[in-house]
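Repro:
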Amino acid sequence: MASNTSKTARASVRAGEAKGGALSVLGEFKYLIPLNNGKHAYVRNLTNGKTVHLSTSSDAFVEEIRVLAGAGHAAKIRAELAALNTAHPGHGWDATEKRLAEAGVFGE
């Protein structure tokens, strides 16, 4: 059966899993796979098992993160955003986190 995702998309998701698998007991699951200097990201959703490619400035990105945060993953997502900002300071992950917080995604 042919896949609907591109070879590049599959490679990016595999690269995000390279550190020990997609899901581990120790919480190594990555929700966000950054793309295009922080302008886009793959968002991996544990609740439905799907990975979607979204612009980090889109409403769809906010809603996807809201679903994950509502399922109890808010702290882990915030930690990932902080780690992305530390690893890639010029990519705007701090602004992305601020935008999500202002939208009430993290229950504030």
